[in-house]
Amino acid sequence: MTTYRTTKTALEQVASTYADSILHSIQQEYPNQMQHMMTGPDDRPTPREVHPAFYGCFDWHSSVELHWVLIRLLRLVPHAFDTTETLKVLNKHLTPETLAQEAAYMRSRPRFERPYGWGWALTFVHELTRWEDETARKWLEAARPLADVITDGFLAWLPKATYPIRVGMHSNSAFGLARSVPWARYLATQGDSRLLTAITKAAIQWYGADRDYPAHYEPSGTDFLSPALTEIDLMSLVLERDELLAWVDAFLPRLSSGEPKSLFEPAFVSDASDGQLAHLHGLNVYRAFVWKHLSEILPANDPRKPLLETGSDIHAKASMGAVTGSDYMVEHWLACYAMLYLSGVQPK
Fold this sequence. Notes:
- Helices cover 58% and strands 0% of the residues.
- By secondary structure, the protein is mainly α.
- The chain has a single domain (8-33, 48-343), classed as Glycosyltransferase.
């Protein structure tokens, strides 16, 4: 069985192939599924007219997340691929003018891409804060207004969001918050802890008392997220380690027996050219990421650790090969989940 490991070597091996595929996608304007609310009969812009930075990749959030992948590749393994074209395209897309327009669009439509696109946009901007590079600093300065709009959006929305959305697609509440935590932590280091406080409060309010989660009902037919594992993803970022382990014990109490089995069985993708069915590749890679992430948090002698490592490997084997060379309905977005799996997150 092919084993994928979250190592720098693994990232180096795919960097060139991923970058080439992503550069094609982020510059491909059509087909495009715009989430544009028309305000009148003449409000019929093209993707590039309203999203000069993130017009490609079939939809806005996919473009944002693949820009993040490129920046993460540049930061972590710049020696592993030819960066010339990547820097050229990013310098064209990530200008003060283009990103100001993206921020203005977001401010004029405060529910646009909430919370999925919000989380990925904050992931993208946060990556720039971690890269000590002159070009990255320019991109960060240009992107800051977009991050500010989304931060304001979260602060306005979270106090009103009485209930979470527990689905395996874009509106999932836990996933959007999890991808926003690193940016919230960064703001806290700068003296503004409001977003981190709001996210932590919402996470505990929504998920803190969850017990014996009915994950045996997963997956749904078009999932690219596991509703159960999105909660683990988020709670691993807002709880202290001992608190998290106690919460996981109650959340999935039969995990040490490999239950529920549905979470350890990769989803079958019958047609990668069908954009909805293709989502299941994302589910597999996302499960691989979260199982690996949780296994690294567990104590060395925890009996669940080898089960999660095996579950991660099985899911990675099922869909990591689809990141490139499969179909555009997969290639325009799956690399972001592969990047989460291959490079991981920063646990609390």
